Amino acid sequence: MCKSNVKQWLFRGILLVIVIVICEIIGYTGMWLNSCSLDFLSTKNYFNIRAMLLGNKDPEYFPRYLSLPYLGYIPYPGYKKHEVVQHNEDGYRGNKVPLEKTDKFRILCLGGSITYGFGVDSPIQAFPAQLEILVNNYILSDSILYKKYHGAEVINAGLEGGNSAEELQQYLFKYRYYRADAVIIHSGVNDALLVRDAKPDFQLDYTHYRRINFHAEPLPQPARWLMKSYLISFFTIRLFYQSFADNIGDLYQHPGEQTFCKWSNVNMDSIIGKQQYEQYPFYENTKSLYSEITSDSSVLIVFPNALNTKFVKSKSYKDLCSLHAAMSKKLCAQIGGTYVPFEFDSIKDASSWLDDCHVNANGEKNKAEILFPFLVKVMHQRAQKN
């Protein structure tokens, strides 16, 4: 009788294990099937969401961006991709620069993905890092500059998807405290996309468009312990985090369900046609940003957007990018700064273009070479002035 009970309990135990394994396989399969995102910027597939909820500290599972008050969103500290750490612990791409000013010439680069370096796998390949290499080598060979500056340091504050509103926001609340000697603004494309796709509910603060919930906070115990089960993870995400996971298309665009305040009622076509730029976000944001930079005694360097028109079919998109470049040039002259001409033909090898606005590693190096002589001139002027 005793042996019979043992066999019965053993059978039940084996059966239970088989059921658990099958359930976990079902859960894992469900998570895998829901992790094939079409969004090339999204790190919010089911496995990544599970890692966030578990509080996983593996950089390979970190979200790409961190949502924050006042700053909107920043590159997630420690984020890793292609086995390379992409973001430093201070929340921007590339090497960390100390907040305290040193005896090095400090350069801040602001912009969207064209500053961040969307087309390259490693931070060192992006033009800000390439520019740092060029300037450091030059300072060593220039006795005048070497007496003043013992090298250069460049902050890559590029923000994928970032527009003029975020650039102003991030400068005001974070990057002005770095007291850069020179600030390079490489911007305009993302604003063009937002205005091109302007809807009847267009808002001057872009809240009709923006979605910035990029990360989920870890769950408390014991819920976090239960999430170790793939089946429980699958159903938890499916039931409670599906709207967070839905990122097909544009990671930065909300699906229209979010509530926002419709405080402005403008027609962008009319504003552009009448040149009423006091109601045009890119113009107003950029003017404010340029003014803040110069008021902080930093040298303003404007590096306009450029398009590879072979990839662009939308005439309005081309026209808007041209308008933003013209606005940047005009404001630079009015406020006082250095304007660096940049167009499609400025990139030596046309094959360096990956799409309408991003370039590969060779193109990023070329950008640094274009900026370099203008920056050297600025450095000499600043060294003589100080």
Assign the CATH class of the largest domain: Alpha Beta
* Distance N to C terminus: 97 Å
Q: How do the strands line up in the largest sheet?
A: 6-5-7-8-9
Low-pLDDT regions? none
Shape designation? globular
Mean pLDDT: 91
Summarize the biggest pleated sheet: 5 strands, parallel
Quaternary structure classification? single chain
Which architecture name of the largest domain does CATH use?
3-Layer(aba) Sandwich
Structural class: alpha/beta
Question: Helical amount among residues, as a percent range?
Answer: 40-55%
List the total number of helices. 14
Q: What would you give as the CATH superfamily of the largest domain?
A: SGNH hydrolase
Total beta-strand segments: 9
Strand proportion = 5-15%
| CATH structural fold name of the largest domain | Rossmann fold
Rg over C-alpha atoms, rounded to the nearest angstrom: 25 Å
H and E order:
HHEEEEEHHHEHEHHHHHHEHEH
**Tally of domains:** 2
Q: What does this protein look like?
A:
The chain has two domains: 1-63 and 215-250, no CATH class; 76-211 and 257-385, Rossmann fold (3-Layer(aba) Sandwich), CATH 3.40.50. It has 14 helices and nine strands. It has helices spanning 2-33, 46-54, 113-116, 127-141, 143-148, 164-173, 189-196, 223-226, 230-240, 242-245, 268-273, 281-295, 315-335, 361-385; strands spanning 65-68, 72-75, 80-81, 84-85, 105-111, 152-158, 182-186, 299-302, 338-339. The strands form three sheets. It has a five-stranded parallel sheet with strand order 6-5-7-8-9, with helices on both faces. Strands 1-2 form a two-stranded antiparallel sheet. The termini are far apart. The model has no long low-confidence stretch (mean pLDDT 91).
